[in-house]
Every structure is written in C-alpha cells, then in structure tokens.
Amino acid sequence: MAGTFGNPEVVEESVDILLIGGGMAACGAAYELGPWLEAAKAKGVDISVKLVDKAAMDRSGAVAQGLSAINTYIGEEQDPADYARMVSNDLMGITRDDLAYDLGRHVDDSVHLFEEWGLPIWKTLDDGNRVDGASWASKGGKLLKDGGKPVRSGKWQIMINGESYKWIVAEAAKKALGVENIQERVFIVKLINDKNDSNRIAGAVGFSTRENTVYVYKFKACLLVAGGCVNLFRPRSVGEGTGRAWYPVWNAGSTYAMAAEAGAELTMMENRFVPARFKDGYGPVGAWFLLFKAKATNAFGEIYMETNKELLDDYPPYGQAAVPASCLRNHLMMREMREGRGPIYMDTVAALGKLAETMTPKEIKHLEAEAWEDFLDMCIGQAGVWAGENIEPEVTNSELMPTEPYLLGSHSGCCGIWVSGPDDVGAPTEEAQSGIPEHLPSGWHWGYRAMTTVNGLFTAGDGVGASGHKFSSGSHAEGRLAAKAMVKYVMDNQDYTPEFAESIDDIVADIYKPVKNYLEHKDYTTAIDVNPNYITPKMLQFRLQKIMDEYCAGVATMYQTNVHMLDVCEHKLGMLKEDAEKMRAKDLHELLRAWENYHRIITAEAHMKHIQFREESRYPGFYYRMDKNFVDEENWKVFGNSIYNKETKEWTNFKRQHVDLVDKSKLFK
Ligand code: SFD
Ligand code: AMP
After folding, report:
1. Range of the domain at 323
2. How far is CA 588 from CA 210, 220, 243, 257, in A?
3. Pairing of strands 221-224, 457-459
C-alpha cells in the first residue's frame, strides 16, 4: 500500500551486501563484485547485492559534471612506492603508506577499464605529437593497456575528454550489477547496529525522495561510500551564486556521520581541503599549473612561490621537498593576500604566449580550445564566468582564490574512516625492495581490507581516511578492493542473521520527524516559513555555516582559529544539534535537506573536535591554530583518531602511532 506524506509505507528487504552510494567507489565495487559472486556461486553460495544511491547514478557524485583529467595513473614511469611517497608529502607526512601503496598497485587497471568502456584518453604518439581522445585511433595511437602513452599533465595526471566520464563508468557498473539490483533516489539516513553485537552492522534505513516510502535493509556487509562533505562551511558564493561550490554540494557528510554513529573509528578528521581555484566559478587549476606551465602571481606580478620560498623552511617534514604540499602552496598565497598584495592571478597570458612561440596558428587555436575545454569538461560554470566577464585567457589573466573548506578523503585531503590495510603487503621480496617491510604496524590490519573497526562495515574513496590523492580512478579501484573483501567476509559469516538493535517503528518515526514537525505546526502562523515551532532546513544550514565559518577557521577569519574560538564553536554546535530536532520538512525535498544537514552537523562536530585535539597547525594554508601555530614533529607526527558514542553524544579523541613504511628521502632533490 502506498504511503502518505504523514504516514510512509515501510518496505523491508534482506540482502547479503548493500552498497550505499553510486559514485566512483560504488561503481568500482559494483563492477568488481561480478567475478567474486560467480566464484561464491561455484562454491554453492548465492550472494545477493543491492546498490542504493540518493541520486541517479549516471550523474551522481563528484564526477557528475565530468572531469578533464584522471589524477592518479601510475604508468610505467613510477611505481606504487613513489605514489605512497607523493601522498605522504602532500599530506604533511601523516598518511598510511600501506593503503597508498596498495592503491598504487591496483589503480591503473581501473583506468584501462575506463578506456575499454569508451572513455576518450589523450595520447602522445611515437613522433611526440599529442592528440586528443577522439583522434588517436586514426593516427596510429594505442590503448593504454597495449602500451599507448597518455598525455601527462603532471607526474601523476593524464588528460581525458571526460564530460561523460561518470556516465561511462556508471553504465559498466549497472551492466555488471543488473539494474534490478539498483535503487536510485533513496537517501540513507542511518546504519543500524546488531542487537547481539554492538560492534557489528546489521542494516541501514533510508527514504525515497520521490515517494512516501521508507526502506529498511538488513544485510551481512555494507559498503558505505556516500562521498565527502560539502557546505558545512559558509561558501564564498552567496546571493546569486549560492549553490555553487567546488566539491559536490550533494555529498553532505553522510559517510562520516553514519559511520561515526555506528561506532566506527574516524581518523584525521582535522584535515580538510581548501583548493586554490579560479575565483567565483571554482574552475580547476591543475591543468593550468601542470599542462600549460602557468605561474601564479601577486598583484605586482611577483611569483610568490619563488619569492616566498624560504617560508617553507618552517614546515617539516617536507617543507623543502621538490614539490611543496598543496597546503603549503596555499600558505604562500595566503600571506600575499593577508599582507595586501592581492589579488592573486593565474598568469594565463604568459603561459599561453610561451607555448604559442613554437606553434603554428592552427596549433595555437587548438591550445586555446583545450584551455576552454578544461572547464567545459568539468566545471562549466567557470566557462560561464569567463564568457560573462569577457575573459580570453590569452589576453586577460584570471584571479585565483582559496575556497571554503571541504572534508574529503580521496582528493588532496585525508579525513575519513580508519580501515584495515592489505594483508599481503611486504611479503614478496620485490615489494620489500621498494621499502615496504614485512608486517604492518599494530592496529593497521584486522582481517578484511577496507573494513572499518565495525564488523561488516566497509568503505572506500572519500570514506577512507589517512590516505588521499586517490581521485576518481583511485576511488574506483578502492571500491573494487573493498568488494573483494566484502565477499570474503560474507563467505566467512554465512551463519550470521542480522537482528536490529532498534525497533523499526521508532526508526521510521525518527526519520519522518521533520514531516511531523511541519504537519503538526504549519497552521500556527500564516507565513509558512516563519514559525516558533520549527526551523526550515535552509535556515539551519545557514546557522551551521556561520558557526563553522566564524569559529572553526573558515574564510571569515582567513582560516584561523584558536582553542577559545573552538570552545565557542563547540557550544554553538551543541545548541544547533538540539535545534536540529526541530527541523521541518514541508515536502520530500525538504526531508532530504533536513537529513543532509544532520549529517553535516555530525561531520562538523568531528572536524571541530579533531582540530581541538591536535595541538599544532599541521596544515598551514588549510587551517591555522593560532595558539599553536607550528608543526610539532615530536608530539604530533601521529594519527588523530576518534570514536563517537551516539548514546551519550560524546567524542573520544586519541592518538595512534604513525610509521613510515616507505623511505621518504627521495622526496628531496
Ligand atoms: O580537477 C548517497 N575529482 C577529480 N578526480 C580526478 O581523477 N581528476 C580530476 O580532475 C578531479 N578533480 C575534481 C574532482 C571532483 C570534483 C567535484 C571536481 C573536480 C569539480 C575527485 C573525484 O571526483 C573523487 O575523488 C571521486 O569521485 C570520489 O569518489 P567517491 O565514490 O568516494 O564519491 P562520489 O563519486 O562523490 O560518490 C558519492 C555517492 O554517494 C551518493 N550519496 N547515497 C545514498 N544515501 C546517502 N545519504 C548519500 N549521500 C551521498 C551520491 O549520490 C554519489 O552517488 S580536480 O579538482 O582535480
Ligand atoms: P587541481 O586542479 O588543483 O585539483 O589539481 C589537479 C592535480 O594537479 C592534483 O593532483 C594536484 O595535486 C595537482 N596540482 C595542482 N596544482 C599543482 C601545482 N602547482 N604543483 C603540483 N601539483 C599540482
């Protein structure tokens, strides 16, 4: 029977494995499950799988708009240990080398699959000419897997014609899993622990964003891959630009919040990513810096990365590394802004001029088209800004600006969930030669790759903390690694029957509470949005963003905070959490917004508690603890981890030992 707005239908389903999310990691898992499910079947075990995505998989997640580069491709020039080294360098020395190394040895296979599925990848031909994805086949180029050479924009990045990237990857995932096993437009609100074992996951509950239906899933294992967290800080775009952000606004911290509430250990939640972007449109800079070799300057044309270089001496462990970390690049830029030498510009004019010196007019036109396509493939809004402001990159330089902070574990950030590492790293001599020892440090491995500290709960992509720089390809590969481990887990736990620790009626009532708040009180006033008995999700979101912006090192304070500001932040977040109980939902769309906000609040709280805990400024240029404005290698070269108790609503923060498994001396010239 179909439900009504006040009284939803409840549908209960049992599967063996649930995939929550339909982004890069989920698509990787969906694809990889195929052969392992077949292998299980051959042993007489039928494993059922379902994927639920809050949106439509063809365009869901961070790759929705498309991308113009794949940022992680190891290729023949490097090896996985080089990759682990780079990840550590960019994240100021505190990453899990085992996770990065493992990813590095698997990621290229995902890229080869993308190409097989139809993703156009630029190629460098034998004569050194480079051709885009549409034309290499007719010019004698080869597939990457057959030895074709990509066009490297940077050491790790390769160029693609990727407007339809997500569509292509999702199509393969759907085909592998079967559309009948995929449910779109279902927002998962919470995970349910097992009645007999609080450290085990037994199910998840969500609601349809199209119909009045609540879905209850029982399962043995679950892959929680709902992306990172956006819009927990006040964005720079306001008014006419509201809604524009760099990372996907629809990823609202569901991964971190649901994992935390289920009792999973989080790691490095103090870390955030503040990308330097083309101002107002949030256009990517990687292709400009790396492919077009552009330089960023202050208002006086000074290249601050050169003139301010000595500032990096203050930042161990890798301040003096050949490639400064993303946060350190920001740090130098921010000093120019703070001291009044802004605006900061990307010198597109000089870069294109220099490249054009050796080109024919036709080649120059193609180069200019590539510059536009970089935006059109992945951030069309920036192309709109250029068109609207009469910017021709070969004639006019464009402003750069650090954005509001985002929480993520797959791009140039490393917050997320603490997971079990690979079990075979280090054993073969070949790997030992690359610097990986035979055994992982204690607490890094407990059986199933990518499993969190809660039994049966796995994650990948933005969900996995203490690694980073996986990007689209690495998130896909990590989903595949998790899929294989989940099948093993299910095979090992065939006798397990999930039982919920909470009653389904209570959970359903909880999920629809914002609807109840609305229906009960809507007639109290004549203006639907003004009511002393409820708060609209939009207003609550403004409050959250203001708190985070002003007290937790957002753009308002130029990314600065201190212990006192954090105390105020904690107090105000506590009040906000109380008021969140009063959010209203006047329709299903608002119900979605309400629960997104709730996930953002838990994520914001984790971020704040971790910044409070880490008594140093490990990521200058991402945030500054002004009362501890230094990097303290002696006391803080450690993982900052935490566990949340959903009953008492308290966080416990603690350190975990950091160990370098790969020799890092190669990072210095
Ligand atoms: O230019 C729920 N990324 C880039 N990667 C690259 O390889 N090259 C680039 O060029 C990259 N750049 C870039 C990138 C992202 C963005 C937004 C821009 C530019 C503008 C990064 C990658 O895209 C990123 O690393 C991966 O996509 C991460 O994968 P994953 O699977 O961890 O997250 P996802 O793809 O966003 O998917 C999340 C899914 O979860 C769903 N979801 N479903 C149910 N219930 C809930 N509660 C849910 N909450 C979320 C989403 O709908 C989605 O399906 S550049 O900057 O460097
Ligand atoms: P972005 O467009 O900034 O997301 O960058 C895409 C890729 O290029 C990421 O792997 C970044 O780490 C890398 N990158 C961006 N800018 C620089 C730079 N100035 N130096 C080195 N790597 C960079």
Report:
1. 276-402
2. 7, 29, 19, 21
3. parallel
160 three-state secondary structure: strand
What pLDDT score does 435 carry?
52
- Single-letter amino acid code for the residue at 258: M
- Residue 470 Cα to chain centre, angstroms: 9
Query: Do residue 419 and residue 446 come from a single domain?
Result: yes
Q: Which of 404, 467, 92, 413 is nearest to 276 (CA)?
A: 404
pLDDT category at 427 given cuts 50, 70, 90 is very low
Ligand 2 atom with the smallest distance to the CA of 71 is: 10
How many other C-beta atoms lie within 10 A of the C-beta of residue 384?
15
Question: Is the minimum distance from the CB of 267 to ligand 2 under 6 angstroms?
Answer: no
* Pairing mode of beta strands 17-20, 624-625: unpaired
Measured distance CA(5)–CA(1) in Å, rounded: 13
Residue 336 included in any domain: yes
CA dist 577 → 467, 472, 565 (Å): 30, 33, 18
Confidence of residue 434 (pLDDT cuts 50, 70, 90): low
| Same domain for 538 and 481 | no
Q: Is the CB of 586 under 6 A from ligand 1?
A: no
CA atoms within 13 Å, Cβ hemisphere of 150: 29
Q: Counting atoms of ligand 2 from 1, which one is nearest the CA of 69?
A: 6
Same domain, 36 and 87: yes
Going by CA atoms, what residue is nearest to atom 13 of ligand 2?
286
Best of 378, 406, 414, 478 for a ligand 1 pocket test (most atoms within 8 Å of beta carbon): 378
The ligand 1 atom nearest the CA atom of 410:
25
The reported pTM is 0.97
398 domain residue, yes or no: yes
C-alpha 461 to ligand 1 mean position (Å): 8
For residue 224, which of 22, 440, 429 has the smallest C-alpha distance? 22
Q: Tell me the C-alpha distance between 245 and 235, whole Å.
A: 7
pLDDT average, residue stretch 467-484: 98
Characterize the bridge pairing of strands 624-625 and 560-561: parallel
Ligand 2 pocket test: pick from 292, 326, 347 the residue with the most ligand atoms within 8 Å of its Cβ: 326
| Displacement of CA 179 from its chain's centroid (Å) | 26
Q: Which amino acid is at 462?
A: D
Is 128 contained in some domain? no
Q: Please state the domain count of the chain.
A: 3
| CA 604 / ligand 1 centre spacing (Å) | 19
- Boundary-marking domain end, from 459, 492, 525: 492
- Are 480 and 515 contained in the same domain? no
Give a yes or no: residue 133 inside a domain. no
Please work out whether the CB of residue 311 comes within 6 Å of at least one atom of ligand 2.
Answer: no
**Of the residues 65, 67, 70, 71, which should be mutated to test ligand 2's pocket, given the most ligand atoms within 8 Å of the CB?**
71
Say which amino acid occupies 113: L
**Which ligand ends up closest to the CA of 278?**
2
Which CATH number belongs to the domain containing residue 602 in this structure?
A: 1.20.58.100
Residue 605, CB-side half-sphere exposure with 13 Å CA sphere: 27
214-257 confidence digits (pLDDT tens): 999 999 999 999 999 999 999 999 887 788 899 999 999 999 99
Ligand 1 center from residue 463 Cα (angstroms): 11
Pocket test for ligand 1, best of 122, 230, 403, 475 (most atoms within 8 A of CB): 475
Distance CA 440, CA 418 (A): 14
